[in-house]
Description:
Blueprint lengths: L2 H10 L7 H21 L4 H6 L3 H31 L7 H19 L2 H24 L6 H23 L15 E10 L5 E7 H23 L1 H11 L1 H6 L4 H26 L6 H16 L4 H21 L4 H15 L10
Helix pairs in contact: 4-8, 4-11, 4-12, 4-13, 5-6, 5-7, 5-11, 5-12, 6-11, 8-9, 9-11, 12-13, 12-14, 13-14
Amino acid sequence: xxxxxxxxxxxxxxxxxxxxxxxxxxxxxxxxxxxxxxxxxxxxxxxxxxxxxxxxxxxxxxxxxxxxxxxxxxxxxxxxxxxxxxxxxxxxxxxxxxxxxxxxxxxxxxxxxxxxxxxxxxxxxxxxxxxxxxxxxxxxxxxxxxxxxxxxxxxxxxxxxxxxxxxxxxxxxxxxxxxxxxxxxxxxxxxxxxxxxxxxxxxxxxxxxxxxxxxxxxxxxxxxxxxxxxxxxxxxxxxxxxxxxxxxxxxxxxxxxxxxxxxxxxxxxxxxxxxxxxxxxxxxxxxxxxxxxxxxxxxxxxxxxxxxxxxxxxxxxxxxxxxxxxxxxxxxxxxxxxxxxxxxxxxxxx
Length: 350
């Protein structure tokens, strides 16, 4: 049969029903419309009774979004190192905590929070560069040894940080102009006299979300729209060919590793300002990064953003409505994702 005949048959017999992508898009639009209604509309009494209150619901959503922003900042560096470059660095959580401590010291001694943020990024990027040159470059392609060595580094780093900064809890103080709460144009209730009550939310948490979005867009554009990103992706897929074209692959990989480590240090200061700095935070954020990368897909910045969003919202919504079992939601999301799409939401099929 000719190609014209095949085309005529395809046009006369279109596929029946919506495709899988159309179903997912429709489901996403439906969920978005429901959320918009829940934010804008005045809730009926029965919905208040089920979800405690509109204020509690909106606070959980905003807390989930801002926590997702923090998780993305940590996981974006992890997805560059682990997901893209295939370096199994299980000391990534230690880089986060070390960045928080370094940022705390610099901000306290200089009295300038922004210098603390920049200093932590540079310091941890240098630590990551040294780790890549001295450790991971020597263990290229040996995942098991990378895993064991990075676990050993994380244990030693945890003990050293405990010896230097003790087991106390530190809080990194932010500038006054980004502290405090702002009134959002969202009505949470109406008083008996007709006065509307608007939602107040910490300004700093919203800034964290904005920084995460900006860094995510910058990373995506760099990896997908620039020559540097092309070299990074080419170095992962075919290192020999990239090296034959005259590019020093070791320099490229060292730079990416340093950037990923620096993002962990940056997230440490930002997270230590929003929450606190204490021993054990390294394990928490390492596990969060692993889950985010597994759910979102290896080496995908977009996938890391989606994974962070799902995990952040699940944690905060679970904390409000399922406090006993809230932590289980994170692992339920990971198990369901692995069962349906083992490569992750935005991961490449092997």
